[in-house]
Specification:
heterodimer; A: alpha+beta; two-stranded antiparallel ribbon; 2 helices; B: mainly alpha; two-stranded antiparallel sheet; 50% helix; flat
């Protein structure tokens, strides 16, 4: 059995990496909020979604977190009338990505908060280890 | 010092605290995992009560019970207070409060061990 404090660090690290992947997905969505197709009537960028799942770390019995799936959002695209657009169909309508900036901002904030909480755990586990090591010195 | 079992007790509590820290860590890491249920360790007092004394074996043929048990620290499901739409029951605030508790107790624990250690040294020196 591994030391629980060390595996606390490991678990927090898995959280950090999962949340940063989530931030990457949010960044992709925001960057592509206006990306349309190139040919008339083509589909634009589709919003990506991310799902987490917990996995058991056998040696320590702790629940790690990992990215289980990066999927796509099947919400309908926004339709806009713009006949001069290269991606406009025969009726002059352009399909724009189904990205809602508000949702992305909220998602980003949540990822941010969770990342902070994970960092706090790392910091504290380190402190506990240091306290233990300090027992050995300076008497 | 044999009679007091202080270092033994302190070690056991430190172990319990680090398991708790690990549980808090995995709750926080899984704060956004759908269907994840928050867990916590059983209180230290309960863990301690389950530990029974072992009889001294003066002869190899004596039967002994399980070795003086740091009863393994058990986990239990946290009392569910809020469950989000995704079935997740982790409350970040609650977890951070727990982390604060662990930190305080651990600091107390190591301070006590250091104090006792200094007492022992005081008896040895001079």
């Amino acid at each position: 059995m591994t030391d629980p404090l060390i595996s606390a660090l490991k678990v927090a690290a898995s959280g950090l990496s999962a949340q940063s992947t989530r931030l990457r997905v949010v960044a992709e969505n925001m960057a592509n909020a206006q990306s349309t197709g190139n040919t008339p009537g083509a589909d634009p960028y589709t919003r990506k979604t991310i799902t987490f799942s917990s996995t058991l770390d056998r040696p320590s019995g702790a629940d790690l977190v990992r990215v289980s799936d990066i999927g796509t959002d099947d919400a309908p695209y926004t339709i806009e009338f713009d006949p001069s657009h290269p991606a406009a169909d025969t009726n002059g309508y352009v399909k724009l990505p189904n990205v809602n900036m508000m949702v992305e901002m909220a998602d980003m904030r949540e990822a941010n908060r969770s990342y902070e909480a994970d960092l706090q755990v790392v910091k504290q586990a380190r402190e506990l280890i240091t306290m233990t090591i300090d027992l050995l010195k300076g008497n | 010092m044999e009679g007091i079992h202080l270092f033994d007790l302190a070690e056991r509590q430190a172990r319990w605290l680090s398991v708790r820290q690990q549980t808090v860590a995995s709750n926080i890491a899984n704060a956004n995992t759908p269907g994840f249920k928050a867990s916590d360790v059983v209180p230290f007092a309960d863990t301690l009560q389950k530990t029974q004394l072992t009889m001294v074996a003066t002869n190899p043929s004596h039967l002994t019970d399980t070795p003086a048990g740091v009863a393994t620290v058990e986990l239990r499901r946290d009392q569910v207070q809020t469950e989000s739409y995704s079935g997740n029951t982790v409350s970040l605030e609650q977890e951070l409060v727990k982390a604060g508790d662990v930190n305080r107790d651990y600091s107390l624990n190591t301070s006590i061990v250091r104090a006792f250690h200094q007492m022992l040294l005081a008896a040895l020196k001079e």
